[in-house]
TrEMBL record:
Membrane topology listed for this record: Multi-pass membrane protein
Location, primary (coarse class): membrane
Keyword Repeat on entry: no
Lineage, top ranks: Bacteria, Pseudomonadati, Pseudomonadota, Alphaproteobacteria, Rhodobacterales
InterPro entries: ABC_transporter_permease (IPR051393), MetI-like (IPR000515), MetI-like_sf (IPR035906)
Signal peptide: none
A Gene Ontology cellular-component term: plasma membrane
Compartment(s): Cell membrane
Domain (ABC transmembrane type-1): residue spans on this chain: 73-288
Transmembrane spans: 20-40, 76-98, 110-130, 160-184, 205-230, 269-289
Family membership noted in the UniProt record: Belongs to the binding-protein-dependent transport system permease family.
Protein name per its UniProtKB record: Sugar ABC transporter permease
Tree of life domain: Bacteria
Biological process, per Gene Ontology: transmembrane transport
Length: 297
């Protein structure tokens, strides 16, 4: 591009660029600015109010020597791996079933996506009632004659994460299903016709042709689900409140409790910085993948 063409290139679509300017400024000032402010204050010994009294890496040393934080990281890893795999698998299976041009597809799509429209607080309260042993699943099954049946994951430290997983999948799988369904609808119909002519089974067509073609769609779902897993908070508060004990503690709840319940802003800033680092580890490779894909196109 010559020097003369650059001003014309900058003035092209000027109204659209001006309309996007407030959002760009908001992103720079609010998101990036506040993130940097948090990172800087994570190296201080701020308590009730933030202050620039630097203590180096003391907050991070204290953070990674706290059993509650370590338990929250372990819980997030277990919940995250299970939620990521199951949401993608269940979402793809449901999307493949809906892609068969079934009757009442719009109704099924609405039913599948409806839980995502609810807040995590509502989801947590609903599943707290469903999993309650006094009038939930355990009570219903025992009413059918199975008196020895026991299902009380909310009060069992070894099972409480699976209760969170069930509630999280119930709410989030619908979004993954709809995104993957849109990706399936973008597959050329000629590919399916060629596979039928060659006698290739449908499952093999999905595995060897369709899924590799949908890698960008899976990458988008991966980022969305992963970001939701990292900031998991309201579902935990509504369903278990981190209990029993600290069996269902998560990093986001640790940040909230440190900053507002214990008035230890420095510790909360350090924990939130670690969460920010985790999100960046997820988003940056995805952004590079998307950018390189567009450049190839």
């Amino acid at each position: 591009m010559s020097g003369r063409d650059r001003p014309a290139q900058l003035l092209r679509n000027l109204p659209a660029k001006l309309a996007a300017l407030p959002m760009i400024l908001t992103a720079l000032v609010v998101f990036i600015g506040c993130s940097l402010w948090t990172v800087v204050h994570s190296f201080t010994k701020s308590r009730l109010l933030p202050k620039l009294d630097f203590v180096g890496l003391d907050q991070y040393d204290r953070l990674w020597s706290t059993p509650r934080w370590l338990v929250s990281i372990e819980n997030l890893a277990i919940y995250g791996i299970c939620a990521l795999i199951l949401s993608l698998v269940l979402g793809f299976v449901l999307a493949a079933l809906l892609d068969q041009k079934i009757r009442f597809e719009d109704g099924f799509r609405t039913i599948i996506l409806y839980p995502y429209a609810l807040s995590f607080i509502v989801t947590g309260l609903v599943w707290q009632w469903i999993l309650n042993p006094d009038f939930g699943i355990q009570n219903i099954v025992r009413g059918l004659g199975f008196e020895s049946f026991v299902f009380d994951p909310l009060h069992n430290p070894d099972q409480v994460l699976f209760a969170l997983l069930i509630a999280g999948l119930w709410q989030g799988t619908g979004l993954v299903t709809v995104i993957l369904l849109a990706g399936l609808r973008g597959i050329d119909e000629d590919i399916w016709k060629a596979a039928r002519v060659d006698g290739i089974p449908a499952w093999k067509t999905y595995l060897r042709v369709v899924i590799p073609m949908m890698r960008p769609v899976f990458a988008t779902c991966l980022v969305l689900v992963s970001a939701g897993i990292v900031k998991l908070y309201d579902l935990v508060v509504a369903l278990t409140n981190g209990g029993p004990g600290i069996a269902s503690e998560t990093p986001a709840k640790y940040v909230y409790d440190s900053m507002f319940n214990k008035q230890n802003l420095g510790q909360g800033f350090a924990a939130s910085t670690m969460m920010l680092l985790t999100v960046l580890i997820i988003i940056v490779p995805w952004a590079m993948f998307e950018f390189r894909g567009k450049r190839r196109d």
